[in-house]
Amino acid sequence: MKGCILAIESSCDETSAAIMINREVKSNLIANQTIHADYGGVVPELASREHQKNILPVVDQALKKAKVSIDELEAIAYTKGPGLLGSLLVGSSFAKGIALSRNLPLIEVNHMKAHILAHFIKDENKEPELPFLCLTVSGGHTQIVKVKSQLDMEVLGETLDDAAGEAFDKAAKMMNLPYPGGPLIDELAKKGNEDRFKFKVGEMEGYNFSFSGLKTGILYFLRDEVKKDPDFIEKNKADLCASIQKSIVDALMLKLNKAVKDTGITHLALAGGVSANSKLRAAFTELEEKACTCYIPKFEYCTDNAAMIAIAAHYLIESGEIAKQASAPEPRMKI
Prior knowledge:
CATH superfamily of the largest domain: ATPase, nucleotide binding domain
Oligomer: single chain
CATH topology of the largest domain: Nucleotidyltransferase, domain 5
Mean pLDDT: 94
Strand content: 15-25%
Shape: globular
CATH architecture of the largest domain: 2-Layer Sandwich
Number of domains: 2
């Protein structure tokens, strides 16, 4: 099998399509949805409507950029879950339609596994040595996963409430920063003093996380300080961003260090949208000083994208895991 895969990702608010041939990305297009900025977060109904507008032109451009015709496709892959149900339905319905009309194998992909498998896309980056630990951090998920093989993964710990990415975005909203606020916190933090303010992250057993208490703590702190000085946030924005970012990154690295110590696994990978955060990347690579080998994907493969869906599909095809047309999306799909 030549392995020409069309992959579609539509789990949240990015509509993405990619063409992959033998683990090589030929195109990877993403249509972002700016409509959610007015609401300070993703509105599920609006997201699904935007996917309906974007999916045909995005797939069309992905084929054209890859210089691949629809007749050359050998498999269609899509995100089954987790994600927003309406968004998942748009992607899955489109993928099923093409697969059915062209009599092609249909491959359903776990979005979280795909983030991890982005490390195996064929490019100049080195691939993780198995087994490895992966810290996956995004707007909807925060997990430490033991990766035994491309198809065999075990969640060692995860957030019990809110994800780290959501904590970044909600903290940004409290400081009147536009959505998505995570990247803005990262930029402002570079100019701030990260030791100026102290914000506590809840302590959980094992390798689990909790960020809901952090959000509440930030909310109450800002409320009290603004009462004293209405301009408090504006005057201290850089220091606030740096301090909040430090609290989140320190909590992530504390658990990852514990997992390394307990498992003895020293090959480590970073995945998910928040892996683009500069402080997290710096703290992660510092683990190499502790005899660890660290792997970070390219920026283009950190956020939600269809190339990661394609690489996951590649390994599923190798194992013969073909989906049925009757398969339904799973918004709360687990690894």
